[in-house]
Amino acid sequence: MQAAISLQNLTVSYRRHPALHHINGSFARGSLTAVIGPNGAGKSTLLKSILGLVRCNDGQVVTHADVGRIAYLPQQAEIDRSFPITVQDCVMLGYWSRVGLWGGIDAGMVQRAQQALAAVGLEGFAGRPIASLSVGQFQRVLFARILLQDAQVILLDEPFAAIDTRTTSDLLRIIQSWHAEQRTVIAVLHDYEQVRRAFPQSLLLARNVVAWGDTGEVLCDENLQRARAMAEAVDEHAPVCAVGESA
Ligand SMILES: Nc1ncnc2c1ncn2[C@@H]1O[C@H](COP(=O)(O)OP(=O)(O)OP(=O)(O)O)[C@@H](O)[C@H]1O
C-alpha cells in the first residue's frame, strides 16, 4: 500500500535524552492508526515530529507528494482558551492555511462552518465565547475546525482525554467517517479496549517501536509487557544520545 508518511531512522532528543530512537516505518494512505504506549513513550513527540514542531536529531519524516495539508489536534492542556473569540471564529481558523491573514471569508465558508458545528452536535453555539465551553464541548469545536481544514492527514493527540462516553462515541464516529473518506488518521490513545474496537492499525511505542501493524497482533500481552519493561528501564537508565537535542 502507498505510504502517506514515512519515518526513516527518526530520532528526537530533548536535552540529549532520546524521546524517539531510530524509528522506521510508514503510515499507509487511508490508514487509521492508534499510537499507544506508556507515559513518556514519545507518542506526542512523534506527532510533533511529523508536523515539524520539533527538530529531528537524526533521520527524517518524509511526507509523500500530494499528501497536502496536515490537520492537528493538540492535547487540550496545550491550548490557551482565555483568548476572547467565539466558537464560530475558532472553527473558522480551520480556513487559515487556505485564506491566510488577508484572505476573505465568503458566505459559503460561513455556511460550511455552521454545518461543521451541526455535524459535531453544536448547533446554536456559534456565538458563545470558547472560554464558556466544557472540555467536551470544546473538543467538539476542535473537531469542527478539522472538518473545515479538509486535510488528507489528521493527527489527534489524546482526543478523548477527560471526555465523557457520549461525546467520545460522537467523535469516534467522525473519525470513522474520515477513515471512510480515505484520509490518513493517526491518533494517540490510552484506552486499549477502544483501540481494539475502533482502530485497525496500531503503533506501540516505548521510545523505540515495540510493534507496528494490525491492532490484534500489536496488542498482545507479550508486546505490552515489553513496552512496560522498556519504559521502566528508560526511567532509571536513560542513555544520553550522542546526537544533538530538540529543546
Ligand atoms: N519540551 C520538552 N522538553 C524536555 N523533555 C521533553 C519535552 N517534551 C517531552 N519531553 C520528554 O520526552 C519524553 C517523551 O515525551 P512525550 O510527551 O512525547 O511522551 P508521551 O508518550 O506522549 O507521554 P504521555 O502519555 O505521558 O502524554 C518524556 O520523557 C518527556 O519528559
TrEMBL record:
Pfam families per the UniProt record, alphabetical: ABC_tran (PF00005)
Keywords per UniProt: ATP-binding, Cell membrane, Membrane, Nucleotide-binding, Transport
One MF annotation (Gene Ontology) recorded for this entry: ATP binding
Record flagged with keyword Cell wall biogenesis/degradation: no
Keyword Nucleotide-binding: yes
Highest taxon in the source lineage: Bacteria
InterPro entries: AAA+_ATPase, ABC_transporter-like_ATP-bd, ABC_transporter-like_CS, Metal_Ion_Import_ABC, P-loop_NTPase
ABC transporter domain ranges (all copies): 5-232
Family: Belongs to the ABC transporter superfamily.
Name of this protein: Metal ABC transporter ATP-binding protein
Organism: Herbaspirillum lusitanum
